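A reminder from the course coordinator: this example appears on the midterm review sheet, so study it carefully.

Given structure:
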């Protein structure tokens, strides 16, 4: 499969989430590409009406392209808990409410797991999923997925990261994402896929769509 290459040196990141901005800044640091964001430009966040991560990522990226005429990158991500039939999934941010209270969201996940009787580690499997959508002004798009498997824990541990990080322990590790440093979580080095779902999606993006990622 042939992917279109991004050859510019400035990319519009279609997000208002400061946590994601911080993570992407770390990921792009080794590359000669500067970022501007939808939040910095005062763009209105579109309504995410898709039924999949891919659809919602494309909605956000296309809205940014339509508003600015610039090549835009959007991320849609979330956590899918097996015992909850894949929820909260694409609704991961919405589970935090209008105030984006992820302590409340994590409590809601834990309460739902308890209601399902999922108390043992082997009953609490989950996957963090991230889809990156890169969209050009002519309408062309490329979508890349990254995922990491793990276990939901309670109580949450660690104050690093954001969202559900402190409730998620990736397979093969003893620390939650909330306890890991940015370097431990992302491994943001050229040629290294990293651990997090976002870093794995980004690694795939660098190998397929970034002209200086070869």
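Designed residues:
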């Amino acid at each position: 499969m042939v992917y279109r290459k991004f050859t510019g040196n400035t990319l519009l990141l279609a997000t208002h989430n400061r946590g994601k901005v911080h993570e992407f800044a770390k990921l792009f640091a080794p590359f000669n590409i500067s970022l501007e964001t939808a939040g910095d430009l005062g763009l209105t966040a579109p309504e995410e009406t898709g039924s999949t991560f891919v659809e919602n990522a494309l909605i956000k990226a296309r809205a940014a392209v339509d508003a600015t005429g610039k090549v835009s990158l959007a991320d849609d991500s979330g956590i899918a808990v097996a015992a909850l039939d894949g929820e909260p999934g694409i609704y991961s941010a919405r589970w935090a409410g209008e105030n984006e209270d992820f302590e409340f969201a994590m409590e809601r996940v834990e309460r739902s797991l308890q209601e399902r009787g999922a108390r043992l580690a082997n009953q609490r499997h989950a996957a963090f999923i991230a889809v990156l959508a890169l969209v050009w002004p002519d309408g062309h798009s490329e979508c890349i997925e990254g995922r990491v498997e793990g276990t939901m824990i309670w109580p949450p541990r660690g104050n690093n990261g954001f969202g559900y990080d402190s409730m998620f322990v990736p397979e093969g590790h003893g620390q939650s994402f909330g306890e890991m440093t940015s370097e431990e979580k992302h491994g943001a080095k050229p040629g290294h896929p990293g651990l997090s779902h976002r870093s794995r999606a980004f690694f795939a993006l660098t190998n397929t769509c970034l002209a200086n990622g070869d």
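The first strand starts at residue 10 and ends at 13. The chain has one domain: 10-213.
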